[in-house]
């Protein structure tokens, strides 16, 4: 049995600090995190986790809470205004008050939705994140970005609303489909390039092992990636500055997700987005060849995609214009000046963008 690892996330912008617990058999921790003020607990979960949600419900009932479960669609289909509206209706019908607590149980799509419902219900109620995918644990569950997608763009409607606690039970990873697990590695690798290169060394030492929760470095990879995220969001919850580095690879990545009508896995799109960002850095004269090339080798070594359709460029460029980092007509990209050295490339020449896209297109 693994000992529980605790990572502290500092409070900022009027929000309280909280802990991320990583371990096994963390179910018992849920009651402690909810506390005695709450009467009702709503567990929002995807179809894939119906059985787990039922176990949690029974447990909460046993602890004296009025527990309800809200099943939502798997994956990105949950991140819609219709699904949020369904959740609001259920909360209304059950008399959910400001002292009650929402639990988001699932991957990043579910926790983004659950956090958004918590942020908007009665203008904000407390919520706990229980991530059950690699991506959810290392990125989505931490930091309080919540939201839903619209046809015009990814996560375009949302709020900064941090959870009061995060419970990452490693046992849940055992049932995650392989391609979803690998998708999560894109965010782990992102953390490696922007802040903690030891992550890259660990993956390169055993890429096959990195693609399974049974791999030798799973806990260390998760712990390191969460630490990167916790350090960044503790100082800049609302993305006024440094937090933008967590968006490495996301400007093109989100455009690809929109172009695929949110049927692609997030990590797959971000993988291509990071290769593009590396090429931008290289072509702008900021990033050395070895680090730019390393993106391709490490991402490919775990089976993540590196290229996208050449003919999609005009649509992707259009989508990138409403990226949240844009200011007016100015496109802004997170790039690297070296390993772990991030900077912002503002308003790059259109020819530079085309040249970088040529390097990732097929
Ligand atoms: N808020 C943030 O800071 C942040 C950070 C990164 C990513 N995200 C968002 O996270 C989402 C991607 O998250 P994801 O990769 O976890 O995908 P996901 O939530 O879509 O989950 C992938 C699939 O696995 C299923 N699943 C979840 N847990 C399972 C388990 N334990 N066993 C079996 N099946 C399981 C889900 O139902 C879904 O079908 C995107 O919407 C992305 O925008 C948010
Ligand atoms: O936490 C952040 O900040 C991030 O940018 C992390 C990203 O991995 C994540 O995909 C996030 O949801 C992107 O947010 P967005 O504001 O660009 O939609
Ligand atoms: Zn992401």
From TrEMBL:
Gene3D superfamilies given in the database record: 3.40.50.1970, Dehydroquinate synthase-like - alpha domain
Reactions listed under catalytic activity: 7-phospho-2-dehydro-3-deoxy-D-arabino-heptonate = 3-dehydroquinate + phosphate
Pathway: Metabolic intermediate biosynthesis; chorismate biosynthesis; chorismate from D-erythrose 4-phosphate and phosphoenolpyruvate: step 2/7
Keywords, sorted A to Z: Amino-acid biosynthesis, Aromatic amino acid biosynthesis, Cobalt, Cytoplasm, Lyase, Metal-binding, NAD, Nucleotide-binding, Zinc
Listed EC numbers: 4.2.3.4
Cofactor note: Binds 1 divalent metal cation per subunit. Can use either Co(2+) or Zn(2+).
Subcellular locations according to the entry: Cytoplasm
Positions annotated to bind NAD(+): 108-112, 132-133, 145, 154, 172-175
Name of this chain's protein: 3-dehydroquinate synthase
The gene coding this protein: aroB_2
């Amino acid at each position: 049995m693994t000992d529980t690892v605790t990572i502290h996330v500092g409070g900022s912008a009027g929000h309280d600090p909280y802990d991320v617990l990583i371990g096994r058999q963390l179910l018992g921790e849920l009651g402690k995190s909810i506390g005695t003020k709450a009467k009702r607990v709503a567990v929002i979960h995807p179809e894939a986790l119906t059985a787990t949600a039922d176990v949690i419900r029974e447990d909460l009932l046993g602890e004296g809470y009025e527990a309800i479960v809200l099943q939502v669609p798997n994956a990105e289909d949950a991140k819609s205004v219709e699904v949020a509206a369904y959740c609001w209706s259920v909360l209304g019908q059950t008399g959910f008050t400001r002292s009650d607590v929402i639990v988001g149980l699932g991957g990043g799509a579910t926790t983004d939705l659950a956090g958004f419902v918590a942020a908007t219900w009665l203008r904000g109620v407390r919520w706990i994140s229980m991530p059950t995918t690699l991506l959810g644990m290392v990125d989505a569950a931490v930091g309080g970005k919540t939201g839903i997608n619209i046809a015009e763009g990814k996560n375009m409607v949302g709020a900064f609303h941090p959870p009061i606690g995060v419970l990452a039970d490693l046992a849940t990873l055992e049932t995650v489909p392989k391609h979803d697990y690998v998708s999560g590695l894109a965010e782990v690798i992102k953390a490696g390039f922007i802040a903690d290169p030891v992550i890259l060394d660990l993956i390169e030492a055993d890429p096959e092992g990195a693609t399974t929760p049974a791999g030798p470095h799973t806990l260390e990879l998760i712990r390191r990636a969460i630490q990167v995220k916790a350090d960044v969001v503790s100082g800049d919850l609302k993305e006024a500055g440094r937090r933008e580095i967590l968006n490495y690879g996301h400007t093109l990545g989100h455009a690809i997700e929109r172009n695929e009508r949110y049927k692609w896995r997030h990590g797959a799109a971000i993988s291509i987005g990071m290769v593009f960002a590396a090429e931008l850095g290289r072509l702008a004269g900021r990033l050395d060849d070895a680090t730019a090339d390393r993106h391709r080798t490490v991402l490919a070594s775990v089976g993540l995609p590196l290229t996208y359709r050449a003919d999609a460029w005009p649509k992707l460029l259009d989508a990138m214009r409403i990226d949240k980092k844009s200011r007016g007509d100015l496109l802004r990209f997170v790039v690297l000046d070296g390993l772990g050295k991030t900077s912002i490339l503002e308003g790059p020449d259109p020819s530079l963008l085309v040249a970088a896209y040529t390097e990732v297109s097929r």
